[in-house]
Specification:
The chain is an alpha/beta fold. It contains twelve helices and ten strands. Helix content is 36%, strand content 23%.
Length: 278
């Protein structure tokens, strides 16, 4: 398993984001591994990917974190090049790959998705994959997407999990008096402040139509579905424990409505998959 890294001219928000996730790397899996809503989200995302991904594919994963998805896809026979800006996340990922005996299937590279032009392992790949809103940590997503065609094989796939500009669950917090959370995504032009482990950085929010517009010249849309539109977001972590039957019911309803309007675009996330035309 190779470990490539290189010096990049990163901006202050990238530095802050890297520091935040470096600090969280040692506790990330402990925080989220037992969260039943996070487990539901991972299952949904993986199902969306596997619907189109050919066997024995090569995957470029952006913002790979501690490697939960990299390990999953590698265990299914895919080769994964897992990238992240946070060095400590990469260290945790490499250890996990060794522990699971997948170090021949997973390679790593410390690289920001804002600097794909300097990516050492340029593929080409069958899939570019980014999970759980890592790409929301850039205000220049259009520039990131511009590099995708050159990194993909003909008919290659893109699956991104992005936070949209409107989340129904967050907006409903208005009725509990939480105006800050209810309206935070509407102020994303200059970035919205977020914080992890005491480090503040900015996030931006994007609609499915934005992703489609950026990629429409070279990609066709295969699927777009809402995630945690009817099922509550993962910060309602006690909800499945307190209301198991209701949680199961909401998952079934979301399964039916996830690709319909307006539900496909008003969840905590949306999952969008596109295919390169040639």
């Amino acid at each position: 398993m190779e470990n490539s890294s290189h010096v990049q001219n990163i901006n202050s928000n990238e530095k802050d984001t890297a520091e935040a996730f470096n600090r969280q790397s040692s506790v990330f899996d402990n925080i989220y591994s037992s969260n039943l809503i996070v487990q539901y989200k991972r299952d949904r995302v993986r199902s969306a990917v596997e619907k189109y991904l050919p066997p024995h594919s090569s995957i470029l994963e952006l913002n790979a974190g501690t490697g939960e998805d990299a390990v999953y896809f590698a265990s299914k026979g895919h080769k994964v090049h897992a990238t992240d800006i946070a060095t400590e996340m990469q260290n945790a990922l490499r250890k996990k790959a060794v522990d699971y005996g997948l170090n021949e299937m997973i390679t790593t590279e410390v690289c920001s998705f804002n600097h794909l032009a300097s990516l050492k392992n340029t593929g080409p790949y069958d899939l570019i994959f980014s999970n759980f809103a890592g790409l929301n940590c850039t205000g220049e997503l259009q520039k990131v997407l511009e590099f995708f065609p050159t990194l993909l094989k003909p008919r290659g796939l893109v699956t991104l999990v992005i936070m949209p500009r409107f989340c129904l669950w967050e907006f409903l917090l208005l009725f509990k008096g939480n105006f800050k959370t209810a309206f935070r995504r509407f102020k994303s032009k200059d970035g919205v402040k977020a914080h992890i482990e005491g480090v503040h950085f900015k996030c931006w929010y994007y609609s499915p139509s934005f992703i489609k517009r950026c990629l429409e010249q070279e990609f066709e849309l295969l699927s777009c579905e809402g995630l945690c539109t009817i099922v509550p977001p993962s910060y309602f972590e006690n909800f499945p424990v307190k209301h198991p039957s209701l949680f199961l019911f909401l998952k079934k309803v979301e399964s039916v409505l996830k690709k319909t309007f307006p539900w496909k675009g008003i969840g905590d996330y949306f999952i969008i998959t596109l295919r390169k035309r040639k």
